[in-house]
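Quick illustration, no need to memorize.
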Amino acid sequence: MSTRKQRTVWLSGRFVAEERARAPATSLTVTAGVGLYETLRLVSGLAPLLDLHLARLHSACAALGIRPQRHDWSRILSQLAARNRIRNGQARIVVGDGFELATCAPLPRGLAKERKQGISLETVRLERTAAALKGTSRLALWLAERSAGREVLLVSARGQVLETTRANLFVVTDRGLQTASTSQVLPGIARGLVLELAKQMGIAVQVRAPSIRERSHWHEVLVTNALRGIRPVCRIDGLEFPPPRADSVTRRLQRSLDARMRVR
């Protein structure tokens, strides 16, 4: 008999047990992967960046011609977190063809260690399709991660460093902070906040994809997303980067973003 803890999800207006949640069999989300989603950080049962996520979600829905129902997502997520006894964790909103779904779960394992010690990445020649949309069809990204056994760094055919399979990427050079344009990568919620914070802190920003050939000149590398916050990158394809100091750009931005996200 399974000992897996039963979770509650919210599906099209109702809280139901996870195993009882059903999507329409002929939904385009099921048959063609047509759908959108947002993954949010939960802090004390609340989603502090919810408004930013909903703005991106509604913009993406308009681009696809999807008309989602209007819901009090703040109340739904709060109740969902309480029903699953999760105070600090993650939530996901999915807008599919013929249904809307919200789920929640604990934070990813090892996140605290990654935020402190950093992550290692290997590069793959891959570009996200429909980069501006956070779509439910992630097959190419999933296959890249499965092959590597972890999150990987996407590099264009011309050697432009774009983003990881789960986060936006920034590099720190003599000229300041550099990151790819949203014409090439997902317009991440945390990415936008980091750009704002960098401006407030007087850090110069260049919105242009870094070249993988210039990585030996990078002083720091960091990745951002709204669930994990900022994580330093300690290695790319065997090239190591020194651990960021307390006064480094990475740590300064990390502290500021944590305050914005209310993460302690």
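The CA atoms of residues 170 and 179 lie 5 Å apart.
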